[in-house]
Amino acid sequence: MVKSVKMTATSLAVLLLVLGHAMAQSSFKKNLATPKPAKPAQCCDEVRSLKVQVASLSSILEEMSKKQESDLMKVVRQMMDLEKLNQQHEARVTEAESKYSEIYNQIEIMQLQAAQSAPQQSTSDAIYDCASLYHKNYKISGEYKLPKDDFLGTPELNVYCDMENNGGGWTVIQRRKVGLTSFNRDWKQYKNGFGAIRGDFWIGNENIFRLTRQPTVLRIEMEDWEGETRYAEYAFFTVSNEMNSYKLFIANYSGNAGDSLRYHNNTNFSTKNKDNDKCVDNCAQLRQGGYWYNCCTDSNVNGVFYRYGSHTKNPDGISWYGWHGPNYSLKRVEMKIRPQSFVP
Ligand SMILES: [Ca+2]
After folding, report:
1. 289 C-alpha to ligand 1 centroid (Å)
2. How far apart are CA 192 and CA 180, in angstroms?
3. N or C: which end of the chain has fewer CB within 10 A?
4. How far is the CA of 270 from the centre of ligand 1 (A)?
5. How far is the CA of 293 from the centre of ligand 1 (A)?
6. Rounded-to-10 torsion of CA 66, 68, 71, 75
7. Cβ atoms 317, 301 nearer than 8 A
8. Cα–ligand 1 centroid distance for 147 (angstroms)
9. Using one digit for the tens of pLDDT, what is the confidence trace for 64-89?
10. Distance between Cα 175 and ligand 1 center (Å)
11. 0.70 exceeded by the pTM?
């Protein structure tokens, strides 16, 4: 009987345990399965509308980000283009710079060469006549200014250079062609020179003296009223200083006008106020010019300018006896000088 009670109690306990466990499990399951308390319908509509809004915002955001991305790509592409342009510009600048430096180098080389040759020019190659200008590549005829030279003792002097005829390099010392300038002047005027360098002028005995201290050639060109031209050239020409009355020395004639200066060789210069001629008469007054008068003339290129018509009537005109005799006054005369050593 006890055994059966015991068994019953044990069975009861087990049953209770099983029941308890089953109940606990059932309660847990029940708890899991129980749906959340239902909310009111209004709340769910709001959520749904919010969800829709979120979705549409997301898509907008997505779109925006896509657009931003494409914009960014555009910007990047533009940046790259700009970079390329910049590189091109830089390349051009570099090219220009290299060209500039090349030119600059050439200029530097030229300046250097000029600087190197400058000392030679200042000593052995000074500018003191048209021939030296010619050798410095001045090859156009016209008026030039010879610089003052302390070493040679020459003042600044305006000259007319014939750079074209007979090889060029000629310094013109006398010209008659216009006929308005009187050549009947005194000693001082013949000493210093007078007239217009582009027209009629005498360069001055002092200048002739200085310019002919080196072995010099004299060329006299002349034209008559018929338009024919002749010349007389002397391979040797010099004058002495004022103390020696600018005495004339010429030699070695060539030409087609006749040697009408030979008669005047070794004579002093005379003017209307200084009779240095070899005559009882005053030749300068008779011939109305300044010249190396003997007794008196075989030529008179500083005589009176007579125009066509009256050019054959007077013995004091611009004459060259070897061509037209004593009473023919020429239309044009030009005296020019050049160093004997000149090579065109
Ligand atoms: Ca005399």
Report:
1. 14
2. 19
3. N
4. 9
5. 9
6. -130
7. no
8. 38
9. 888 888 888 898 899 889 989 988 88
10. 26
11. no
